Amino acid sequence: MTKTVRFFTVALLTILSLTSIASSVEEESATELAKKTQNPVADLISVPFESNFNTGAKDATVYVLNVQPIIPFHLNKDWNLITRTILPIINEPSLFSRQGSAFGLGDINPSFFFSPAKPGAFMWGIGPTFTLPTATDSRLGSDRFSMGPAAAALTIEGPWLLGVLVNNQWSITGWGRKPAVNQMLIEPFVNYNFGSGWHLSTELIMTADWEAKAGHRWTVPLGGGVGKLFKLGRLPIDTTLEAFWNVEHPDYAVDWQLRFRVTFVLPAFKR
């Protein structure tokens, strides 16, 4: 059995086991649950499956499926630990001559946010983030172990949920000829919830590669989309479809991105 098949098997069994306990989710309105899925430090287990279709060089489309389990832990009456892990599964066609296609697991990115257990109107979390060199093909990863600080902050005002997620990572060790990592991510997000689970949303994933030459450092998208939370039996599922155009990006980077996310909402662990 190949590594890729084993990975998909473990992921499927994990989702099935989590789904089996979904009937214990407390009854909440679709709008309130939608807000929690939009909150990166919410006290709620969610498992987003995010499909990204990226088109750029040679009009080729790179497909990335990000499996992003978010699991909170109650440390004590004052603090929660929110874990957020991104497991990318990548299909990259041949983008340049003499370069073949590649498919497999990319670099896994776990983040840990310490967050107040009893937040007010302003919510926040802070902690470390890591990138592990787990790519099954060197073309799909950085060949570097990287780490750095991460922070999230947001507020909810009526139907509005506004916030930002920020981190910066530096490579600590690695191998191969790929350059050192010094990269920042800024992700502002804005959501407007209409009711009955419908919402407008935008999550602008902006990155800056400080190792690149001036004029080739920033990737800045513009765009947004629409989403709907519904229940399959007692299992809440949030769906979002967004499209983005990169108004600033390095040469040979993607021009636009279509993002479709399906989020399964599950009960949080109780003390």
CATH class: Mainly Beta
The number of helical runs is: 2
Number of strands: 15
The whole-angstrom Rg is: 19 Å
What are the salient characteristics of this protein?
Porin, globular, mainly beta, about 270 residues, 15-stranded antiparallel beta sheet
Write a short abstract of this structure.
By secondary structure, this protein is mostly beta strands. Helix content is 9%, strand content 56%. The N and C termini lie far apart (39 Å).
Plain-language structure description:
The protein is mainly beta. It contains two helices and 15 strands. The protein has helices spanning 3-19, 30-37; strands at 45-55, 61-67, 70-74, 79-92, 102-105, 109-116, 122-131, 144-157, 160-174, 182-195, 198-203, 206-209, 218-232, 235-248, 256-266. It has a single domain (3-266), classed as monomeric porin ompg (Porin). The chain has a 15-stranded antiparallel beta sheet that branches.
